[in-house]
């Protein structure tokens, strides 16, 4: 019989590998992403949107290797905070950890906005709420955020079950519709004379190669969160086995899913100029295809499924951000309320702080800048992804140092260093192409300002606050223990 759960600084070790997969898949939100993310890439690369998503998938697989290796050595709720801090030092750990936490907070606004958009649309479709005001999407989105907060403070096992089941249903629906569309494309009886073509993997003439890397950012937005299982290092039964499996499995699934589904979507709309225009204008890609290829009821179900997917992703963002805030607070200020768990053995206060911040961001966007739910979705998505790439870059450099400089994992073969080095090149160039040439139109010109402004503020705090590094280092030193001791603890626990 397990010991009763008490308030303290430890998380309950109760999750299986499938529940860890549930968090990663839910945060990646494949159902939501397939309906709303490809349009942004299409504005830059046109019919080559599936190619941009394929290149994003290759980048994610490189980054997944980094997280797999780091999770094989460390188990901790702090994810990149620990990975970077224990390898590059506490200053770098704080920058990476607070950066990733910032990404999760921005993504919580992204996904609550998406839940509001799809949820309000579904209520209109079924006649529950017609003639909606402009703020309808925000209201539904804030309700979704409140529900996510509630589920985040109950035991993580229940939250993971909700994530896995909700996303599983919606992904299955998307796959069925995609297969029906593909069969009709191959059979030559698709609406609008659409047909199967590989042109969707070629860049239109006159499109600069640099634009392809700008389009990749929205492919990366779709994959973002595949590493979320790394925040459950203290809650899975066998973290050094289960967490790497969850991360790699999620990355492989996402690569196949997004590349194939996006290609089918572009083929169905058509790779010509008019087809691309219709693709960009679609409010829900698979919803529109479900309606035109099968029936109206299918399109309605996909709209509902996209809402569920967005909510599940919002919940995963809150779970991930709250655990990062918990881990950093626990090490920085021992005994602080944010670094303690509640009666459910979850960081309840940290979750409240995260959700309050998300609500405030959305409220300010709507009131001060006149934003609509679609605006908060795209603004926060672009900003959060830029921050995320910085955190990925620091973690990748830390992985190189851990394995090939400090030689802490002698079982890893020397030639494998080419994988994280390739990840550094891809991440670095993607960041470069999103800043140079600097965007001059609104609101894009503000994305780098907010994203890198957050990184700069975090860096200033990390280096300027007296004793900041020393306090963090105390918690990080305890992590670098031998495999035997750590695995013995897992078995005995």
Task: Give a verbal description of the structure.
The chain has a single domain, classed as Up-down Bundle (Amino acid/polyamine transporter I), CATH 1.20.1740. It contains 19 helices and no strands. Mean pLDDT is 84; it is low at 1-7 and 479-493. The protein has helices spanning 17-28, 30-36, 38-45, 49-73, 80-88, 90-125, 136-152, 156-187, 209-223, 239-269, 273-281, 285-293, 296-332, 348-369, 373-405, 418-433, 446-464, 468-477, 483-492. Helix 3 packs antiparallel against helix 11. The protein is mainly α and 493 residues long.
Question: What secondary-structure arrangement, pairings included, does this model have?
Answer:
Elements: H1 17-28, H2 30-36, H3 38-45, H4 49-73, H5 80-88, H6 90-125, H7 136-152, H8 156-187, H9 209-223, H10 239-269, H11 273-281, H12 285-293, H13 296-332, H14 348-369, H15 373-405, H16 418-433, H17 446-464, H18 468-477, H19 483-492
Helix pairs in contact: 1-8, 1-10, 1-13, 2-13, 3-4, 3-9, 3-11, 4-9, 4-10, 4-15, 4-16, 5-6, 5-15, 6-7, 6-13, 6-14, 6-15, 6-17, 7-13, 7-14, 8-10, 8-12, 8-13, 9-15, 10-11, 12-13, 13-14, 13-18, 15-16, 15-17
CATH class: Mainly Alpha
Q: Quote the distance from N terminus to C terminus.
A: 11 Å
Which runs of at least 5 residues are low in confidence (pLDDT < 50)? 1-7, 479-493
Give the averaged pLDDT, no decimals.
84
Approximately how much beta-strand content do the residues carry? under 5%
Under CATH, the homologous superfamily reads: Amino acid/polyamine transporter I
Number of H/I helices = 19
Structurally, the number of domains stands at 1
